Please model this.
Amino acid sequence: MSGAIERRQLILEYLSDNRKTTYRELAEHFGVSKNTVVTDIAELTIFAPIETVSGNHGGVRVAEGWYLSHRYLREEQTKALEDVLNDVQPDKEAIKSILVAFKKPSFKG
Model:
């Protein structure tokens, strides 16, 4: 998966959890430049109800009541659970159900 695509998904998750933030905070959190975050937010506003606010108390926020409807495990999280699955007999079915519910579907074209 592209770094930009994955980062943008994580930005959406971050905004869903935190509701509002600043470009600087996002840049620091994701280890990219402020300009990169500005580009990411511009792209994300096409798909999500994200508002940008100028000025001293400005930043980035999501519309009231908006949350991501479904989250997926990242690849490394899926792999870690699959690795643990072999060692955890009593909870094997519970872990399998988590993987089924939250493993990101692969789209093969």
User: Anything to note?
Assistant: The first strand starts at residue 20 and ends at 21. The chain has a mean pLDDT of 85.
